[in-house]
Write a structure and sequence with these properties.
The protein is an alpha/beta fold. It folds into two domains: 10-36 and 137-294, Rossmann fold (3-Layer(aba) Sandwich), CATH 3.40.50; 38-134, Rossmann fold, CATH 3.40.50.1100. The protein has 14 helices and ten strands. It has helices at 14-20, 38-51, 64-76, 91-99, 111-124, 135-141, 143-152, 167-179, 195-198, 220-229, 239-253, 263-271, 289-295, 306-314; strands at residues 10-12, 23-28, 56-60, 79-85, 103-107, 127-129, 158-162, 184-190, 233-237, 276-281. Helix 6 packs across helix 8. It is globular. The mean pLDDT is 95.
Amino acid sequence: MTLEEGDTPLIPAPALSERSGCDVWLKFEGANPTGSFKDRGMTVAVSAALSDGARAVVCASTGNTAASAAAYAARAGLRGAVIVPEGKIATGKLAQALMHGARVVALRGNFDQALRIVRELAERHPVALVNSINELRIEGQKTAAFEVCDALGEAPDVLCIPVGNAGNVTSWWRGFSEYGVAPRLHGYQAEGAAPLVRGAPVERPETVASAIRIGNPARWEDAMAAVTSSRGEIRAVSDDEILAAYALLGESEGLFCEPASAASVAGLIRYGAEGRVVCVLTGHGLKDPTTAMSRATPVVPCEPELAAVEEAVLA
C-alpha cells in the first residue's frame, strides 16, 4: 500500500548556516503524501496488516500518525480508527483523519493513556496496531537516513531531530547504522514535555508543539541507546525558542513546517553544533494552521483603488 512516499527534498539553509556557523541542510519531510514523516513507516505497517488479514488498523496519536494511518487504511480498503487526546490535536491533522474516513475517538486523557488503551485493544481484537511500537514502522522510517547519505554523498556530522514518542530518532539511527555511518544525534524535546531530558515520565506534558507533546515515549530505551551510541545528546528547548525558529524558517528559508518540526532548528540555534548539520523538519506547516495564523502579521485591508493599493503595498 503506497502513496509514493519518501524521496523528500534535502534543502540547503543559507540563513541558518550563516547564523549557526555550520553547513546546515533541511530534510523536509512535510513533502510526504500526508505531510509528515509518518508515511514512511505507515506504508510498511499497513501493507503488512493487509497481508496478515487484519480487518482494521488502529493507533493513538497526537495528530500526524492519525492522518497517515487513516490515509493508508483508506488506500488499503481497511477500517481505520484513531484515538486522539480531546482538544489536543491540531486542526489540519484532525481534518485529514476525518476526510480519509477514519473513526476518530477523542479521549478525555493524554497521548500516553491513549497508547496504553490501543495496545490493550489490539490484544483483544483482530486489528493491527500501527503506532511506532510496531517494528515495521521503524523499518520504513529508517529510509530517510539512506536518502540523506545518498544526497550528500556521505553522512552529515550531526543530525538534529525533534523527539516525541522517540520512534523517529530510533529509526534514523537504525538507518545510519545499516548504511555504515555514525553521525551524532542531537534530539530536542519541548521543555514542557521532556521526559528523556528529565529522566522521568511527565504526567501532564504541555507544549505548543503538539506533535511532541508526549510524557512517556514508547521508544524510550531505544532512543537513549541511539543517542548514546552516536555520542549525541537529548536536550530541551522552550516554546518561545520553538516558535522563534518556526518563524525564522518561514521568513528566512521559505519553508513552512509545523511547530514541532522547528524544535530541531531551535535546538541547533540554542546549543550549537559543528560541521555539516541536517535538521529534520518532520511535518508541513499546514498541519497546524491555527498556530500559523496566531503568529502571522495581520492582513492589510484596502479599497479597490490604485492609490490605496500603492499605499498598502509600499508603505
